[in-house]
Amino acid sequence: MVNQGGSLTTLGRAQARELGEKLRAERIAHVYCSTISRAVQTAELAAGVLGVEVTVREGLGEFAVGEAYGQPAGMGIFVEEMQRWVAADVDATYPGSESAVDVAARVRPVLDAIADAHRGEAVLVIAHGGVVVATQAVLDYRPGRTWDFPNCAYVELEGDSSGWRVVS
Fold first, then answer.
1. N or C: more exposed end of the chain, with fewer CB within 10 A?
2. C-alpha span between 65 and 145 (Å, rounded)
């Protein structure tokens, strides 16, 4: 496992364009994304469909992988930790990795700044599955959520002075 991100596959590029198509009716004003290359590629493709600009933001990258760095992907690493996050154990970590609390602590200020810049507007924020799972678990815990977040799936958030809520 590495943190740089690699490139989107042909399927990944198609999924990114489909995401833009799905959200076309939402009148997205801007697209933000993490610094990881596949997120940037996804954002650019979705934004192209939506006809809006992309801004890359620090703080939205996938969670730090700790001792799993260099391990082959797809080995089930982090499954237990993410399952624990959706069961409200948001302090769970793989050795050397970030907890859900750590992830949300760096993501929330980015979301707050984006919300401040786009009051009354809808925006698309492209992040990563682990980041979405962790952030939902900390900012708006609800039992029964899945840890398995598919590529180009999305969660609708609303924020106000009392915090963030998952709408859908």
1. C
2. 22
DSSP E strands in the chain: the ranges are 28-33, 54-56, 122-126, 157-160, 163-166
All structural domains of the chain with their residue ranges:
10-166
CB 132 within 8 A of CB 39: no
Radius of gyration of the chain (CA): 15
According to CATH, the superfamily of the domain at 10-166 is Phosphoglycerate mutase-like (3.40.50.1240)
Residues 6+ apart with CB under 8 A from 136: 142, 145, 155, 166
* Pairing status of strand 54-56 against strand 163-166: unpaired
- Average pLDDT for consecutive 10-residue bins of the chain (168 residues)? 71 96 96 95 97 97 79 73 91 90 95 93 93 91 85 86 81
Tokens read off for 9 = 């596959």
